[in-house]
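Q: Structure tokens for this one, please.
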Amino acid sequence: MTTLDPSAASGTITSLPALTRSREANAASWRSFQEAKEAVAESPTAILITRIETTQDPLLLWQIHQELDRRDIPPAFRYPKNACTPQLEFVTWLADVHWFTRRMSGHKPRFNTWRRVFGPLSDTWHESARSIFEFAWRRGNGAAYYAKGFALDDNDRRQLMTIKTTGQIARQRVLKQAAERRAAIASYALANAARSKDRRPDEITRDRYLIWKTYILAYQSDTTTARLFEQIYGENMTRRKVQKQIAAVDLAWREFGPGKRIGE
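A: Here is the predicted structure, written as tokens:
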């Protein structure tokens, strides 16, 4: 990908204001970015989430995260994350920091210098965040280091994407079975197509898979799943429907999961 980002050539992490100034220096690139930014604001929430993993432009990735933030979609529900390059990994981490510090401005981090990212958004805010990330990145420090520095307990981390708890890591291992899980759901829906007269098997498969994915990310909470599913996909959802669909997914997995044969 052609890029004007200074970090691409230097192997360093660049703050977003610095990337913005670099982009502004090229009129055509800046115009293209503004058009892409406008498209982000007009896109459905579910589409924006699918773009998180694949967007290669760090400034555009930040815009997507900012828009999802405005729509009150926690970073943990923007799975899967984007860590294709150190610069994109930084932006992904920054989305966590922005989410938490904007909502918990009175929180006291363990490391005094980290208090700067709880202040107003500014070039200084961005540079402080960059400094925190790059220090840890160069030393191979991960989620545990950030959790300690920010003084985050497990409850603080539940809605974050990169500063994950051990419970989140375990649940995301389950999500790595997404292809197998969706195939089992599809096989079950097809085998029971006669029971559903008003919906096609592919429609049932889509809905059940997305409910299951949201349910796993929501710590298997029916209430949270229903609320976030409505926010993300714009479809009415209730706790009872979540329970019913998750039961169907579990049955599909038992009957058509890996190692099972149709008719077995």
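A few notes: The mean pLDDT is 92. The chain has two domains: 6-171, 177-256.
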